Amino acid sequence: MDIQFTEEQELLRSSVQRLLRDQYDFDARRKIVASEEGFGRKQWAEFAELGLLAAPFSEAVGGLGGGPLSTMIIMQEFGRHLVVEPFVETVVVAGGLIEQAGSDAQRQAFIADIIAGTKLWALAWTEKGSRFDLATVTTTARREGNDYVLTGEKTAVLAAPWADYLIVSARTAGHRHDRGGVSLFVVDRRAANLDLQSFRTIDGRTAAEISLRGVRAELLGSEGGGVAALEACRNRAIGALCAEAVGAIGELNAATLDYSKTRKQFGVTIGSFQVLQHRMVDMFIAHQEALSLMQHLSLSLSDDEAGVSRLASGAKSKIGYAGKFVADQAVQLHGGMGMTDELNVGHYFKRISSINIQFGDPAYHVLRYAQLDAVA
């Protein structure tokens, strides 16, 4: 598949490439990750000024109307540069949920600040033992006046330490696995009775374990529609993560090819060894297959095609396995230096490993694909 981009989309791509090339090289990225906050507020403000935070939103809520294709373009470039700022968490996931499930008043109140880059968001949906199941929720929500009170635990909430607000899934009815009893809530990250224990992930980002003990929250949209909203959100997030993975895979291939042309063994470059040439051809094919799947998924998300959940699971599993294969080969072909902190190859390896477990690992999505295929 080969998408023919519009003039506006090509302009978006070139603008992102220029910004990251000038201000987000590998050394700059390492300094950002090593900083106390762990991400660049200056870079986030520049993303907002360039219109990246507005690109996926519809014009009706103040966005640029770029949809999933603009997200794909941005995330592929972010993947190439290992950008750590929470674009997926704030714009694609939380912003998408607000636009999709929120009331008109909530869209007006929250999305403008996301587009301006003044507020960060994160989604708290994972719980211990949930195994990527959106409906497995034990956190409870009790009505109290015009608000709700949340009690429960959330685990591995990405970008939560950076966030100003959280979207939390909680049960308003039913048992632990009931799809119809889950609702979504907006929570101030600094609310009383909310305990947040932050930690760094293997790829240098931040996440948190969150405990809610009677935390006041605002219902997002209406009761009981949380799982359906989260499923649509997961499809969009998978599209963005697949694009990021494809960008990272492309950079790993380029770095490995360049290294094979300069590293010598037995008096010749290792790129002259036929067995290594075959492996690099396999890496190239894996990247091209992943690229085609990424584009197919993004086009399907843009057109809101039927069966997009099945396609999303297929892409997540296939691109996940392709990413792991390429990352493994790149590290091995670079030898011991492949996992050193000074070389970017190891950082791409870690980021691809993290992407593979976000919103379901490849094995989970193979099973989900089969289940959706059976009922198609």
TrEMBL record:
It comes from the Bacteria. Coiled coil: none annotated. Its cofactor is FAD. Residues 122-210 form the Acyl-CoA oxidase/dehydrogenase middle domain. CDD domains: ACAD. InterPro entries: Acyl-CoA_Oxase/DH_mid-dom (IPR006091), Acyl-CoA_Oxase/DH_mid-dom_sf (IPR046373), AcylCo_DH-like_C (IPR036250), AcylCo_DH/oxidase_C (IPR009075), AcylCoA_DH/ox_N (IPR013786), AcylCoA_DH/ox_N_sf (IPR037069), AcylCoA_DH/oxidase_NM_dom_sf (IPR009100). This is Acyl-CoA dehydrogenase family protein. It comes from Bradyrhizobium brasilense.
